[in-house]
Structures are given as structure tokens and as C-alpha cells.
Design goal:
This protein is α/β, with parallel strands linked by helices. About 40% of the residues lie in helices and about 20% in strands. The protein folds into three domains: about 1-70 and about 155-240, Rossmann fold (3-Layer(aba) Sandwich), CATH 3.40.50; about 90-150, no CATH class; about 280-530, Rossmann fold. The strands form four sheets. A six-stranded mixed sheet has the order 4-5-6-1-7-8, with helices on both faces. Strands 14-15-16-11-17-18 form a six-stranded mixed sheet, with helices on both faces. It has a four-stranded antiparallel sheet with strand order 10-9-12-13, with helices on one face.
């Protein structure tokens, strides 16, 4: 029997309208939109009708004919959408030449530069000759937007286009999309937007109407005001209530299942365990410089990723690190764990300079400080079962029998909420939330003191995100862990972290307890960051 991924889903998008599609991972958001333009694999059967401007488009050729000129896409990951071997200008020129066959080379170049200006890319002539890896993530997403809009389509489908962007760039992208739709209102080629996201406040900040999908079925639709202020379905209420709220710091977050079961708050919560405050990491005047490309006739130039910063990380506490893209967050995290060598300054761990470690001390340090990356698909080897993935690092660092290692793997996998019977499966057989739990479990196999979490919940929908954050809080208390938590989602950082460090161009703007920073930010930069948070 065939599995139904999207069932009897009908909707419309009006001229110059912005419509949001929300729901958890696997709800069918992307699948239904890919079906419009025949972008699904042949193994998936598509039923129903597509009406474009009142005319039925049933055949494959007709759907393909809508691509680019009438309906265009902006995908979630710009580095996957852009060709790494071509300059950005040439990639945009291709779009113009495909859709306007009679255009000359000079006209295509001029239009490409004009498109870069339209999406507010700085130094458009310079960006024209660059490759994708030579510009920031925010600029890459703007280039993708320029390519999507080059043929002047009348419907733009944006599939999670801001997931990996910091709040400031995210806000700029939202303002840019709204401005472009407004500028083309009442023209011969008005623009409409279908915006797919799991971030309800973000969708609410831009959309006129919203549709809520659950397991392939439309459970609710209405104006943004109706959905956010008076949701009718428990699932919609769950999606709204699972997102951490600014100004609130509960010990546990509600999940969608909690709300469906009738809970509006979690009762009988035990008090947080408070530990004696002692220093685990001490960072003194830390700098990391990267040399820029030069030729034989120029003096070397250096980019300061971190510029003489000093702070402390306390045992059994969670330090949040926030800032815009390029502020130095990931560089700092990689330097803490030894993946990046400092240009100057010192890092002390348990009172000893890590640069002076003996080989034995370095091995102990690497066991005790574990790094959890943003994307679990990249972090897990697709050829290894979960059991093999968990046992592999422990074999290297612990002298124990195979049965002892397996016993530890079973203990840890159940600790993170996955049944031991799943150990024989491969990563592709699990959901995104389950894979993130497995990455956490693999780190815990080393019995660490510290976990460095680099955007580790950014790609998860709000309900799975709540489950993972609750799990991390439980593990922190049970195992007396210390966390360094990097994120661009400031509402999550406020909920999850004890203290927050704000980075700006490699320098520390301020470091304060979580609630103090959100209620009384000292730095103008921090105030601007907080203003960029999408709210409803």
C-alpha cells in the first residue's frame, strides 16, 4: 500500500499576496510546493490540479514551462543552489540568457549588476566577479534571490530561506522581500510570495495569510491575526506555545504533544540544581588572525576574526555566544577546543594552559570537551550503523571490552530517549530530531565535562527543538555538564543560557546574565540585535 505524504491539500495565492506554510519537519510543506513545477522524483505520484491564472496546467511540459519565468524558487541552503565553479555574475547571466534568448552579453551583464543592486548587495561590480565561497551567507542568499527574480516571475516560493541566517540579516531579508512585492504592486508583473518555514513568529512577521500542515494534511488556515491570536486547532496552539518566549525562562519547554494532551504549562517542575561556581575555562587576551591573499608586491594583510578577548566559562553553567554572521562565534568555539590555533593570548582549562599540554593531557582534554555541529547529516557517517557510530570513538580512548562498550552505548542511547532496538539502523532511517539526539549521544560516550553546541538546534522545527533543549537541560543536571551554546535564535539563547556573551567583529560587546542582558542591554549593538528578533 502506498504511503500518502500530502493528502487532499488545496489552496490559492492571490496577486501581490504573501502566504505562509508552516508545520513540523515531514509535514509535507516542501513536497507540495515542489510538485507545482514537477521537481519531485518520478517514484512519487502526484494527483490533483494546478491552476495558473485560471488555466489548468496538467502535463509535465506545461509545469516545466512555468519555471523561472512564472514561478521561481529560493532554497534553504544557498551553497547547494549556487555553482561553486562559476562566478556569481556568470551564474546570473545564465538566467537572463535562458529566459531572454535575444539579450546581448553586455545587456546580460548590466542587468546582472542591476539585479545585485536591487537586492542590496554591497559593491555589486566586485561581487559580479567573485565565487560563492568568497561572500557571506547573507550575501549568498541575496544572490539566490536575485537569480530567482531575474526573469520577473509572478510567484516566488521561498523554502526556509533564512534558517541559517542571523537575526539581523534575517530581518533585512524579510524587509527586502516585502519591499520588492510592494514595488511591483499594480505593475504588469506583480509578485506574490509563498513562504515556507517552521518559525511561526517569522512567518507571522511577513505573511498576510497562513496555512498549517500536519502529516500532509491542512489542519488550519486563516489570516495571520486569526492564526496567531485565536488558533482553532490544538496542533497550531502547540506550534505557537513550544517556541521560547522572550522574557520567560521556564525550566522546561512545552512540546506539541504536551499541548495536544491539554497542558498549557508543565506542573510539578523540580527546582534547578545550583552548583558551586568555579572556573572551567579562562580566556585571556585571545586573538585569531587570518592572512588575506596577497601578491609579491603587496604587504601581507590580516583579518582579525577575534581581537584580544577575555572572559571566563564556569562549571555546570551554560554560556551563550551570539552575534551576526562573521562576528567570530564559530572561530571562538573552534579555538576553545583546539581545532583553530590562536594567534596570541592564552586559554586555560582547569587552571592549565592548553597550549602547554603534554600528549596525555591533550588526549584527556579532547575526551572532556566535545563539539556538536549544526548539521547531524554531515556529522554522522552514512555507512555506519548508530551502534558503530557510538562505539567507534570510545574504542580509541577507553581500554575496555567490546561488551562493556556496547553496554555503555545502550545506556547512553536510552538516556537521550531512543530505544536500544534502534542501534542497528543507519542515520537515513531517522528523523532530524532523532539524528541530533544521536550526535549528542556520541559526544556523551566520551564522558565529557563540556559540550560546545554550534547552532545545534537551528535546523530543527519548534517542537523537536523543544524536545532537544529539554533533553540538554536534563543531561546538564544529571551529568553536571557545562555548555557553550552558539545560536542566532536569541529567544532560544535567552531561555537556555545562564550567561550571554555578545560578539561583534571579533570583539566582546558585553557579557551579562541572560535575563539582565535581554531586559537591560548595555551596548547599542546588542540593542539592535534584540530589535531584529521577529515578534508577534
Amino acid at each position: 500500500m502506498d504511503k500518502i505524504l500530502v493528502n487532499n491539500f488545496s489552496f490559492s495565492v492571490e496577486e501581490s499576496e504573501i502566504v505562509g506554510v508552516v508545520g513540523e519537519s515531514g509535514s509535507g510543506k516542501s513536497i507540495c510546493c515542489y510538485s507545482f513545477l514537477n521537481l519531485l522524483p518520478p517514484s512519487l505520484k502526484v494527483g490533483g490540479k494546478l491552476l495558473w491564472k485560471g488555466q489548468a496546467v496538467d502535463d509535465e511540459k506545461g509545469k516545466i514551462g512555468l519555471r523561472g519565468r512564472e514561478i521561481s524558487f529560493v532554497f534553504q541552503e544557498p551553497m547547494s543552489a549556487l555553482n561553486p565553479s562559476m562566478t556569481l555574475g556568470k551564474q546570473l547571466e545564465e538566467v537572463y540568457k535562458k529566459n531572454f534568448p535575444n539579450i546581448s552579453n553586455s545587456e546580460a551583464k548590466n542587468k546582472s549588476i542591476q539585479s545585485f543592486i536591487e537586492v542590496k548587495i554591497p559593491n555589486p561590480e566586485s561581487v559580479y566577479d567573485r565565487y560563492p565561497h568568497q561572500i557571506s551567507g547573507g550575501q549568498q542568499q541575496r544572490v539566490c534571490l536575485a537569480m530567482a527574480l531575474a526573469a520577473q516571475p509572478q510567484l516566488l516560493i521561498a523554502d526556509e530561506p533564512t534558517t541559517a541566517l542571523d537575526v539581523c540579516i534575517q530581518a533585512e531579508m524579510m524587509d527586502l522581500l516585502k519591499e520588492m512585492i510592494e514595488n511591483r504592486r499594480n505593475t504588469t508583473r506583480p509578485l506574490s510570495l509563498l513562504f515556507i518555514s517552521h518559525d511561526l513568529p517569522l512567518v507571522a512577521s511577513i505573511c498576510d495569510r497562513m496555512m498549517v500542515l500536519k502529516k500532509g494534511e491542512l489542519v488550519e488556515q486563516g489570516t495571520t491575526s486569526q492564526i496567531m491570536n485565536a488558533p482553532k486547532h490544538d496542533y497550531t496552539r502547540g506550534l505557537i506555545l513550544t517556541k521560547p518566549k522572550l522574557g520567560e525562562k521556564p525550566h522546561r519547554l512545552l512540546t506539541v504533544e504536551d499541548v495536544i494532551q491539554g497542558k498549557t504549562s508543565i506542573q510539578n517542575i523540580k527546582e534547578k540544581v545550583e552548583f558551586k561556581q568555579s572556573i572551567l575555562f579562562s580566556i585571556n587576551n585571545l586573538s585569531v588572525f587570518f592572512s588575506e591573499k596577497r601578491n609579491l608586491f603587496t604587504r601581507p594583510k590580516f583579518f582579525k576574526a577575534l581581537d584580544s578577548i577575555s572572559f571566563e566559562i564556569f562549571k555546570n553553567k551554560t554560556l551563550g555566544i551570539v552575534g551576526e554572521s562573521g562576528s567570530g562565534k564559530s572561530t571562538l568555539a573552534k579555538t576553545l577546543i583546539g581545532l583553530q590555533q590562536p594567534s596570541s593570548g592564552n586559554i586555560y582549562w582547569n587552571g592549565k594552559n592548553i597550549q602547554n599540554f603534554s600528549q596525555t593531557e591533550l588526549t584527556d582534554f579532547r575526551k572532556s570537551v566535545q563539539y556538536i555541529f549544526q548539521n547531524p547529516d554531515s556529522a554522522l557517517n552514512p555507512r555506519l550503523t548508530i551502534q558503530q557510530a557510538l562505539m567507534e570513538p570510545r574504542r580509541i580512548h577507553f581500554h575496555e571490552t567490546e561488551s562493556e562498550t556496547l553496554k555503555k552505548a545502550i545506556e547512553i542511547i536510552e538516556l537521550v530517549g531512543i530505544n536500544k532496538n534502534e542501534l542497528s539502523k543507519y542515520p537515513h532511517q531517522f528523523s532530524g530530531g532523532q539524528k541530533q539526539r544521536m550526535v549528542i549521544a556520541r559526544a556523551l560516550m566520551m564522558e565529557p565535562q563540556t559540550l560546545i553546541l554550534d547552532e545545534s538546534v537551528a535546523a530543527l522545527d519548534v517542537s523537536v527543538q523543544a524536545q532537544v533543549l529539554n533533553l540538554l537541560n536534563d543531561l546538564k543536571e544529571q551529568l553536571q555538564l557545562t555548555y557553550v551554546f552558539i545560536s542566532h535564535d536569541l529567544s532560544v539563547v535567552q531561555y537556555f543560557c545562564d550567561d550571554i556573551l555578545v560578539l561583534n567583529k571579533g570583539k566582546i560587546e558585553e557579557i551579562q546574565p541572560s535575563m539582565d542582558l535581554f531586559n537591560h542591554p548595555k551596548s547599542l549593538y546588542t540593542q539592535n540585535l534584540l530589535r531584529s528578533i521577529p515578534t508577534w
